[in-house]
Amino acid sequence: MNKFIYATTLALAVTIASTGCRHRPIGVTPIPDHSGQIGDQGGGGTLQSQPPITTANQGAIAENGQYDPSKWNEDRDALAANTIHFAFDSSVIRDSETANLQAVAAKLQADASASLKIEGNCDERGTEEYNRSLGERRAEAAREALVGMGVDANRIFTTSYGKDKPADTGHDEAAWSKNRRDDFVLLHPKTGA
Question: 180, 134 in Cβ contact below 8 A?
Fold first, then answer.
């Protein structure tokens, strides 16, 4: 009887060790390389943060389907006053930020040639990988809200800087609350691009 229990326990332990510990992440947010561009780092896949290539934006998207900064003039000042902020560890857009999103949507609807880059940011707490993912979720939340307000999804690019681009370099809640944000960059096509 002891041999049977021992053999069964051993077989169960081997089975658990060989199959129960495998975990492949699904929907992993890619981490930008040194140039700040998001690229596929391999593994379990990536979140699709960029719009599909259409005739409307085809010239401004690089061959790999990613945002190509050489095709756009970036105007960081145009929407700087409309930055939205998030609660700690959250990508939920607060009601108090709706007016800023409406202003961004109105600007895009008034200028059919313009597009938008949304840059998701986080405070310094958490791992680099976690903050990249959270920044991407924040940018995607703003993108979805703008699409819900009537902005064409093909005109919106998203990226995540995680904790790499703080608005305030302090190490307290006052600084962290400024760093949990989405920045909006107005884009105009470069002539001849």
Answer: no
Q: Is 114 left (phi over 0), alpha (psi -120 to 50) or beta?
A: beta
Range of the domain at 87: 49-189
Decide if 184 is inside a domain.
yes
Identify whether 151 is part of a domain. Answer: yes
This prediction's pTM: 0.68
Q: For residue 161, give the nearest of 186, 180, 147 by alpha carbon.
A: 180
- Domain of 68, CATH number, reads 3.30.1330.60
93 contact partners, CB below 8 Å, separation of at least 6: 84, 86, 101, 141, 142, 145
Would residue 164 count as lying in a domain? yes
Tell the residue number behind the tokens 């609807």, with chain if given.
Answer: 109
Query: Residue 66 falls within a domain, yes or no?
Result: yes
User: What would the pLDDT profile of 114-169 be if each residue is shown by its tens digit?
Assistant: 999 999 999 999 999 999 999 999 999 999 999 999 999 999 999 999 999 999 99
* 62, 55 Cβ separation under 8 angstroms: no
CA atoms in the 13 A half-sphere facing the CB of 43: 15
Structural domains of the chain, count: 1
